[in-house]
Amino acid sequence: MLPYAAAALLSLFFGMFIGQVQAEDLQKEQRIISIGSSVTEIVYALEAQDRIVAVDTTSLYPPEAQKLPNVGYMRALSAEGVLASNPTHILMMEGSGPQTAVDVLKAASIKLTEVKEVYSPEGILEKIDVVGNALQLPEETKALKAKVKADLDGALAYAQEQAKPLKVVFVISEGGGKPLVAGRETGAHAVIGLAGATNVFANLRGYKPVSKEALIAAAPDVIMMMSRPGSSGQSEILKEPGFNLTPAGLNGNLIVMDGVYLLGFGPRTAEAIRDLSDRFVKIAAKTTPKS
């Protein structure tokens, strides 16, 4: 019985060893295209960036990602452009498109993993799970999830401790006479709430245009916008008709932040929540919110 038991144990050992070698070889052979800012940030946070062969235009962080070949904007992909990088695996944020391009990529003999977008702390941890599993990095994934969860728990507690009853409008664009603002089920709506304030257009769903009259009636204490290259003149929005008659316009309360950092819902979101919460506190200190 002993020789049999020894042989079985030896077989098990070699099986585990061979499995580990095969997994390591597979990791080394992976050619990843990362589509979506938070997906790319997670790959870097897992220290698997050496497997990335191309990214999309939203993958701006870390800065090294901008040096990689680019397949275009995540919502305007060309299937031919993506396949030209000869990937073995595509990590794609939910909402990438157009659908015709996604259908072609799904039909190709290449593994494709779609990462669901949920604007919540739980959604961030799920993203890490999906990306980590795709990269076959169980220990690294477990460690990153633990760190990010601790960071998020701390940031949420911090924001709630100093939460102020501020009313906020997040403006995506102001052209065409009707500003485009964020309603519920958007990253902007979620991060405003996580940082301890209220989105005045939570009655809307998604991004919707609103009239000057609706803007004035909503009476936001704060106007928020995403920073863009060459957008140093964004403070002019406070003087625009409609905006100039809100508490935000009258008190000069404008917050402009990097969109990928603020709305990415990835490893840096805890930092963004703390940052935004601090900005709300500063504004609240000089503003008496309207009820």
From TrEMBL:
The answer on whether this UniProt entry bears the keyword Signal reads yes
CDD domains recorded for this chain? HutB
Domain Fe/B12 periplasmic-binding stretches: 31-284
The residues the entry assigns to the signal sequence are: 1-23
Q: Which InterPro entries match?
A: ABC_Transporter_SBP, ABC_transptr_periplasmic_BD
**Which keywords does UniProt give here?**
Signal
Pfam families in UniProt:
Peripla_BP_2
Q: Which PANTHER family match?
A: HEMIN-BINDING PERIPLASMIC PROTEIN HMUT, VITAMIN B12-BINDING PROTEIN
What's the name of the protein? ABC transporter substrate-binding protein
